[in-house]
Amino acid sequence: MRHWLPGRLGMIALVLIAALVVLLLVRPSAPVVLETRAGLPAGVDADLAGGEPGWVLDPAARRVEIYTAGSSSCPTVPRAVDVEGSVMTVTLAPVSAAACTDDFAYTTTVVAVPEQVTDLESLDVELVTAQ
Length: 131
Known about the structure:
The protein is α+β, with helices and mostly antiparallel strands. It has one helix spanning 4-26, and strands at 35-38, 54-58, 63-70, 76-84, 87-94, 105-112, 124-129. Strand 4 and strand 5 (87-94) form a beta hairpin.
């Protein structure tokens, strides 16, 4: 009878479990941006002179529509989403391109509300522009 076989099978099982744990820890996160489109979200009237970013919550779909102003060919869009308590911090950065148009247009980007957020009524979205 082979006495080394149970030891080797145990070692193989241990290696497989460790690999599974590593895969779960480093798996890619869900995409930040679900959809990007030109213009403002429905029902939003923004000051064209100011160009301040803003957001609108769609609680039924668990999505936030974030609008920003700038170049239409290099719009500023969400790059990262972090949640701490009831605050969802969205980091914004412009899309890089070979050349950006020198125009001023609004862009709306749809972002899913992370599952960690359980109370949508108390959700606050903080928009931070990356430098």
